[in-house]
Design goal:
By secondary structure, the protein is an alpha+beta fold. Helices cover 33% and strands 14% of the residues. The protein contains eleven helices and twelve strands. A hairpin with a 3-residue loop joins strand 10 and strand 11. The protein starts with a helix and ends with a helix.
């Protein structure tokens, strides 16, 4: 990290802290030259709730490993694994639709948070779609929740926590990652996410996302609830950028990098762009440097990963954007993510 980049980076973070975008943040960079980490207001190995980054670490990447191993077909019908799915179009919903968020679920999961977990799941199982699967891009939690259930069924009931540990966390040395962080670290090592009126307490070490918090009574879900650190996530994204290898060890079959950095909706949903599991070419949080081989993911709490498949370079951000209170929208954190991305990939 050269002096000019370091100065620009510090200015960027100090400005964000001064304007209240967040008060604690850790950022990490990985490239063919190695990894570097900088921390602001908190230790670099602080544990954060990564929110929707859970959708890729580990959920969709577990699914892609199954796909590459020939254990899961993208065009398999979801009812083969979830016979309780009784929506209209139940016979047409494919695993591919879960990975590309091309199901027309129009229910905000936050509206279901007061229901018991079995009723939350049932509302997804019996939802009435207005549009046919695979004809619309509609990013949200339901598809990832269903994908997590599929992964549990095909693994003989193993939780996503158990699968994540077996396939990624242990092989990559991600020792501070997973659900239920207080079973691994002290509470003060976990960054608080919000002073929550609904639960009547500061959320620190428990899942911030309301529906994922309720469903955790049954099992960890695929949409949110993972906790991790920048050092751990750098290992994860480095493995993907190395097409499944990390420090000379093969963690995933070759081919994963292509799957996460090419448009899986090309020719399927006109005008829409997303990779399998990951968001692709997203100017909203990648900034002006966005391109057709740049993939990433963001989380509500202030987390994000942005990676360039050709440059073999990535930036990981974890912050407490929602503390003490969430903002009305993500415009300020997305503006920051965009500036961070521009700084990273022009350096």
């Amino acid at each position: 990290m050269n002096e000019a980049f370091e100065k620009s980076l510090n200015t960027l973070f100090e400005s964000a802290i001064a304007s209240g975008v967040f008060s604690k943040a850790v950022v990490g960079f990985t490239s063919e030259e190695g990894m570097e980490i900088r921390a602001y207001g908190t230790p670099e190995d602080s544990v954060f709730d990564i929110a929707s980054v859970t959708k890729v670490c580990p959920t969709s990447t577990l699914a892609l490993k199954r796909v590459l191993n020939g254990e899961l077909d993208l065009d398999a019908k979801v009812i083969e694994f979830l016979p309780e799915l009784r929506t209209n179009y139940r016979n047409e919903i494919l695993v591919r639709h879960l990975l590309t968020h091309s199901l027309d679920y129009r229910v905000p999961m936050s509206s279901l948070k007061r229901l018991p977990p079995e009723q939350i799941l049932d509302s997804l199982f019996q939802y009435r779609f207005k549009q046919q699967p695979g004809t619309v891009f509609n990013y949200g939690n339901p598809a990832s929740i269903l994908l997590g259930l599929v992964l549990m069924r095909i693994s003989g009931g193993k939780s996503l926590q158990a699968q994540g540990e077996e396939e990624f966390f242990k092989p990559l040395g991600m020792t501070r990652s997973g659900w239920d962080p207080l079973t691994r670290v002290q509470k003060e090592e976990v960054v608080a996410t919000e002073e929550d009126n609904w639960r009547g307490r500061i959320i620190q070490g428990e899942i911030h996302d309301e529906s994922a918090f309720v469903l955790r009574k049954f099992f960890p879900v695929g949409s949110a609830g993972m906790f991790s650190t920048v050092p751990d996530l750098l290992k994860f994204v480095t493995m993907i950028l190395n097409d499944g290898e990390f420090e000379g060890k093969r963690v995933m079959p070759a081919g994963v990098l292509s799957l996460v950095s090419s448009n899986a909706l090309d020719g399927r949903v006109p005008g829409e762009c997303t990779a399998l599991g990951w968001e692709l070419d997203a100017e909203k949080f990648m900034g002006s440097v966005h391109n057709s081989h740049m993939f990433g993911k963001t989380g509500f709490t202030g987390s994000s990963i942005v990676a360039d498949a050709q440059k073999k370079k990535a930036v990981v951000l974890l912050s407490n954007f929602t503390y003490p209170k969430r903002e009305d929208n993500a415009s300020r954190i997305n503006a920051f993510r965009s500036r961070l991305s521009e700084l990273t990939f022009t350096h």
